[in-house]
Amino acid sequence: MVHVSATPVLALRGVSKRFGAVQALTDVDLEVHAGEVVALVGDNGAGKSTLVKTIAGVHPIDDGVIEWEGKPVTITKPHDAQGLGVATVYQDLALCNNLDVVGNLYLGRELLHRGVIDEVTMEKKARELLSTLSIRIPSVRIPIASLSGGQRQVVAIARALIGEPKLVILDEPTAALGVEQTAQVLDLVERLRERGLAVILISHNMADVKAVADTVAVLRLGKNNGSFPVKDTTHEEIIAAITGATDNAVTRRAGRRSAEAAK
Amino acid sequence: MSDTSKTVKSDSGPEKAAGTTTTPAEDPTAAGVLVTDPRLLVREEGLKGYVTEFKRKVKGGELGSLPVVVGLIIIWAIFQFKNDRFLSADNLSDITFFMSATGMLAIGLVFVLLLGEIDLSVGSVSGLSSTLFAVWVVEHGLNPWLALVLAVISGVLVGALHGWFFAKIGVPAFVVTLAGFLGWNGLMLWLLGSSGTINIPSDEGPVKLLGQSSFFMDQAIIGAYLLAGLGVLLSLIGNFGEQRRRKAAGVPYRPTGEILVRVGLLALAAFVAAAVLNNAQGVSNALVIFLAALVITDFVLRRTTYGRKVFAVGGGIEAARRAGISVPFVRISVFAISGGFAAIGGMFFAGQTASATLSAGGGNTLMLAIAAAVIGGTSLFGGRGSVWSALLGMLVIQSITTGLNLLNMNTSIQYMITGGVLLGAVVIDSVSRRSQKAAGRA
């Protein structure tokens, strides 16, 4: 990690969350620095989504502290998170199919010119934003419905950037994408890092994680199960942390394969 | 278990994925957004470009107002063939006068349809508001203008009530407004009581203004041309202003030639209409108010944040909610607008007959208003449409009604034909939506 000395943009300290009889998160710690991509991995039900939702303000935390740029803050509703500078791109992109790209990018925060929607400035700024991110789409005046899945994903991510956030949370951004589109989205994630944004990336895809993340934070059964710098960690170590065991079908298989390779 | 096996499968992936990741970054063409995908359909230069784009749009199901214009021409041709008085100035003038009332209902319905919902109560609400107006003016001696304002406010409140049940309680809009359809009609009948009909003095106030013998600028020849000129001028200023601002900002703009052709067509239509109406008696004030309402609501829908919210809720509720739009507020307000326009339409009906009757807002009023909005090109599925469809659709509907009256057709035949036209419009809407999906545009 390059940014160890800096104050993390976001730090969770001992965060717990309970839904009725289910302890969804127990004493979870997480740190994200500016210009760092943290991959949040874990099996289904490990608490990734819950954790992200506590940061995004969908579920307020029960216990623990959320620190924003070193100061403890309370996030109880999505508005609080947005106010701090957290932008979340959920898996179901939630774009309006009937509106064009500009309309979607600025939905809910349209620029006004004498009380009237300022389409011209919005279009200009949208083009500038998309070009700095090297996003290639046919036209900013095309309805979202006519874009491909990958293009929609990058529009959704670009939309998150309109509010000039400091932390971007991406929930499975490549889950439904093809090879080329995945590469585009991963490119975009790298560009977010270059812009000095902190990124939390939820992914099931180890290839994506290895490709763009700096740190992998593993959750297992609602608890931290290790945080690894990506460069010095093997696949098997991460998977062992995800599954929570060193002796299981996955590691046995991996061991067999490496033994075969040694032969 | 299935999850772990998925992770293992991608085991061999990192190098491959990393490879594809770096390629686009090194690709020199990736530098700017202006590099377009070669598969893209970009309009060619010149006239040929417009022709190919038009063909592509028709194929892709983006019919716009094409079917309705074609339909209107066919309808006019048939009626003119059957009865040569159909296209006379007097008859066309009648069409423009009588379409204004139902047209007002249709404007409100366009808002509701944009949400992908339906308001079945507009006919009853219009009848109720005209009755309230008559009761207040005739039985309580209220000032007619005050009574008008109160009647419209009642309509807004009734609509808001429907919207509240829909947005807050979660009752389907269809059912709420169906209840309203019956309930408000019942209230109207109760208010009219045994008398059945209340005649409203038509020599003053809104009833005079909306009556058939009230014309813009007292039938001055210049009045109609003034209106047409105003419309063309506004369109010119708007188009060229937009072009100038777009040029200054360096974003694509409409070429001057295209603007001139568009405004030229508008001018042609406006001045021909003005000449025809002048040939009859002039432009009825009801029509002027209808057109003004269209201009205002069009502006609200396309240029204000409120209009954007309506389209957003119609296009994706979840997206709208995440963008911080209050979905219940939009829903309640849209139904309030629908109720308000229904009430205004009720005033127009009162102006037509100078009375409040048991049959006000009944019969096929509701059907005609819905048919007008849909025929004009507003989608039943939400998110697509414009208030101008109320004008185009009403031209079609009123032409049919007036034409059948001229031919002395029975009400029974009228209902069947109107029903058929509505069904046809909905079929066109559904089919064009399907081909839009196929062309990746919906």
Structure report:
Chain B: It is a multi-pass membrane protein. Chain B: This is Xylose transport system permease protein XylH. Chain B: It is found in: Cell membrane. The complex is a heterodimer of chains A (263) and B (442). Chain A is an alpha/beta fold and 263 residues long. Chain A folds into two domains: 223 residues, Rossmann fold, CATH 3.40.50; 30 residues, no CATH class. Chain A is built from nine helices and twelve strands. Chain B is mainly α and 442 residues long. Chain B is built from 18 helices and two strands. Chain B is globular. The N terminus of chain B is likely disordered. Classes of the chains: A alpha/beta (263), B mainly alpha (442).
- Proportion of strand residues of chain A: 25-35%
Shape-level CATH architecture of chain B:
Orthogonal Bundle
**Straight-line N-to-C gap of chain A:** 35 Å
Seen as an oligomer or otherwise, the chain set is: heterodimer
Sheet having the most strands of chain A: 6 strands, mixed
The proportion of strand residues of chain B reads under 5%
Q: What Rg of chain A, in angstroms, do the CA atoms define?
A: 20 Å
Outline the low-pLDDT stretches of chain B: 1-36
Q: What number of structural domains do the residues of chain B give?
A: 1
Membrane topology (chain B): Multi-pass membrane protein
Keywords (chain B): Cell inner membrane, Cell membrane, Membrane, Sugar transport, Transmembrane, Transmembrane helix, Transport
Biased composition (Low complexity) (chain B): 17-29
Function (chain B): Part of the binding-protein-dependent transport system for D-xylose. Probably responsible for the translocation of the substrate across the membrane.
Question: Summed up, what is this model?
Answer:
Chain A is of the alpha/beta class and 263 residues long. Chain A contains nine helices and twelve strands. In chain A, helix 5 packs parallel to helix 6.
